Amino acid sequence: MLASLPRSPFLRFAYAAYVALFFVYMALPLAVVAVFAFNDSQFPGLPWEGFTLDWFIGAEQPRLGLINDRRIVAGFFNSAFVAFWVTGLSLTVATTTAFLFDRHDFRFKEFAYLMMLAPLVIPGVILGISILVFSSTLAEAVNSVTGYEISALRPGLFLVILGQFSFITTIATLVIAARLRRFDRTLEEAALNLGATPAVVFWTITLPWLRPALFGAGIVAFLISFENFNTTLILNGSNAPLTVTMFDRMREGSTPVLNAVSVTLMVGSGLLGLLGILVQGRGQKP
Amino acid sequence: MREGKLVFWLLFAPFAAWIALLIVIPHIDMLILSLREKVAPRVYETGFRNYADFAATWVYPWTLLRTVVFSIIATGLTFLIGFPVAYYIAKIAQGRTKAALFMLCLLPFWVSEIVRVFGWMLLLRETGLISNALQGLGLTSGPVELLYNDAAILIGLVYTSMLFMIVPLISTIDGMDDALVEAGYDLGGNGWTVMTRIVIPYAMPGIIAGSIVVFMLALGNYLTPTLLGGKSGQWFTAQIYAQFITRFNWELGSAFGFILLATSSALVWLLLRLSGQSLSNTLGR
Fold first, then answer.
1. Nearest-by-Cβ selection for B250 from A16, A126, A133
2. Would an 8 Å CB–CB cutoff place B262 in contact with chain A?
3. For residue A177, how far is the Cα from the chain centroid?
4. In the list A78, A258, B63, B93, which could disulfide-bond B98, CB 3.0-4.6 Å?
5. What is chain A's alpha carbon radius of gyration, rounded to the nearest angstrom?
6. What are the pLDDT digits (tens) for A115-153?
7. Residue contact B219–A118, C-beta within 8 A
């Protein structure tokens, strides 16, 4: 089956209809969540009681809008804080790791590459509990030797950052390494021949070539961090990030404020994603 | 050459710190903890009691088996539903339509999994949209509860991991030369033989990459089974969370973690062996 090969109109139609149905399946849950964020009702569902923005900007109970809901606002800032650090740290380590595997040969390189991929095939829960166990061991050891209590090693945002970093770095490395592999090394050699120092070559030639991949990987890292739940739930302390706050709310029984938060997230991550594609797309052109 | 050595160590150090401190050592520590038995307050011995406890309580192995079987079914369904769509986008749609369809596939996944699960809750619950629609059409006399059953878990799992199947499929099928398909037809193949003997073998690295990721996501999932499944729909990850968060039995929880890790690694290895692929040429491309 190819677009260029003749096919019966019936088959062609049936296939297109299947694909259309698939996209309805993809869009339906999100559309439902979005629509009921604007329903003037205590309950996210039918019947439709009319349009309202109360679930975004409502000032008091029982119609507390998300911008006045302190737990949700706090969750949002916690998530943004975590995502900021995870993005910065994972981009740094992913860049050095991509260069390590692209430019250097060393003993056990294949084994090291498999270890680099390993975080992708370890379930997020297990990454979470292993880091929790190890940090507690460390904290106990420090405590029994010096008497100090290192609160950063107890469940909290610092551990959440480390937990997310541990697997997001692999994804970022793959994105950056893919672009580095297509880099024409003769450009660097030419610049060196013309008298540039290695540092100047890196800043003026190699890094600009990598910029779209760095940007793309940064956006992906930020989004994955912001959305993460499994690893976050286990390492989270008293300052809950947004996904954990939403999960708690959902089990308490939901009001449309959750729909409003969801719409905000959709718009935010949609814009970030679009930005990422624009940058990537520009980088793809010769 | 000494400068080259320095650059190498500067690049190697962050990588080694990352993998050693956050992956290897924590897992070793978890293994040690899982082998620790509490015999009296603050007195511990080393042994396999936590693993024996796992095997002796029927609900634990049963939950693990259930989780594995459901994850395999979810992976298979994701492939069956996603493959025709991926093929359509890669080979049949042209130009702008192709780019637009590809974008549409990515869109739902920029939103948090919790939002996607919430959407299915609003659709499937007793007072939800589908129940209301069925009543409106006169197909049922009263509200129907479609949430809190195994089918709801599967719908949620397939939905939530679709992207990770479709994207690798599109990228491998897109790289296939159309001439291969044309040659298949010229040599007398029909649609089915061309598909099973040319397209699918060609797309195998993508199929395996997608299957591994979808399987791992399903196996390690917690949100979807917890929120869409009923009380009987326990997932193995929920047992791990319970041991760690509510029961404070970290020793048993670590043993569970290792059992899940061993199970998933064994199954991924089996999948790679059966399909003749390797981790580097599927996930690491």
1. A133
2. no
3. 18
4. B93
5. 24
6. 998 898 888 889 999 999 999 999 988 888 888 888 888
7. no
Structure tokens at A75: 């969750």
Grouping H, G, I as helix, E, B as strand and the rest as coil, residue A60 is coil
Of the candidates A240, A284, A286, A246, the one whose C-alpha atom is nearest the C-alpha of residue A264 is A246
Compute the distance between CA of residue B146 and CA of residue A86 in angstroms, rounded to an integer. 38
In sequence order, what are the residues at sequence separation of 6 or more whose Cβ sits closer than 8 angstroms to the Cβ of residue B278?
Answer: B272
Say how far apart CA B125 and CA B229 lie, in whole Å: 11
Contacts of B80 in chain A (CB under 8 A): none
Residue A51: strand pairing partners: A39
Cα distances (angstroms) measured from residue B21 to each of A281, B12, B15, B26, B29: 36, 14, 10, 7, 11
Distance, in angstroms, between A65 CA and closest chain B CA? 18
Residue B105 touches chain A, beta carbons under 8 Å: yes
Q: What is the pLDDT of residue B105?
A: 80
Instruction: Report how far apart, in Å, the C-alpha atoms of A212 and of each of A222, A279, B102, B149 are.
Output: 15, 6, 20, 44
Q: Is A133 on the interface with B (CB under 8 A)?
A: yes
Amino acid at B246: T
The residue length of chain A stands at: 286
Cα A7 off chain centre by? 42
Q: How high is the mean pLDDT in each 10-residue block of chain A (286 residues)?
A: 69 87 88 82 69 70 72 90 95 93 87 90 90 91 85 87 94 90 85 85 87 88 90 88 88 79 86 77 49
- Report CA-CA distances (Å) from B10 to A95, A167, A255: 12, 21, 52
Angle at which helix B150-174 crosses helix B200-219, to 10 degrees, equals 140
Q: Does B95 touch chain A (CB under 8 A)?
A: no
Question: Cα(B153)–Cα(A254) distance, rounded to whole angstroms?
Answer: 20
Q: Is the peptide bond before A6 cis (omega within 30 degrees of 0)?
A: no
* Residue B44 β-bridge partners: B38
**How many angstroms separate the CA atoms of A265 and B111, rounded?**
7
Torsion of CA B203, B206, B209, B212, to 10 degrees: -60
The helix (run of H) or strand (run of E) holding residue B38 is: strand B36-40
Listed residue (B42, B22, B30) closest to B252, CA to CA: B30
pLDDT higher than threshold 90 for residue B248: no
pTM: 0.86
In the numeric block, the tokens 């040690």 are attached to B32
> What angle (nearest 5°) sits at the alpha carbon of residue A170, between those of residues A169 and A173?
85
